[in-house]
Amino acid sequence: MSEERLERIENQLSQVIQAVGVMQQNMMAMQQNMTAMQNRMDSMEGTLLTTMTGGFNSLQNYIIDLDTDLAQNERKTEDNARNNRRLNQRLMRLENRNDDF
Q: Which of 7, 11, 8, 31 is nearest to 19 (CA)?
């Protein structure tokens, strides 16, 4: 092999070694960025999960409150209907007594 050719190969090898070093640094930086992004995703996932769970629990409590209010209103409606029937019966008895006089 000629001296010139050997020198070119050494230069090319030196460039390849430098490129590999730069590539290794880029890969390390990319790995650090990926780790940081994974941490951010984990944090965001936790935040979303907390928010969704809180929202779900809030809606569930609201539905329970609505069911309770509805049950109370139904009882009041039934009581009012029962009282109304009693008053109508009383009124009819009073009218019947009044007719007798």
A: 11
Q: How far is CA 68 from CA 1, 61, 73, in A?
A: 95, 10, 9
User: What's the rounded Cα separation, in Å, for the pair 45 and 50?
Assistant: 8
pTM, entire model: 0.52
String of b and e for 25-50 (b: at least 16 CB within 10 Å)? eeeeeeeeeeeeeeeeeeeeeeeeee
What are the pLDDT digits (tens) for 6-31?
Answer: 999 999 999 999 999 999 999 999 99
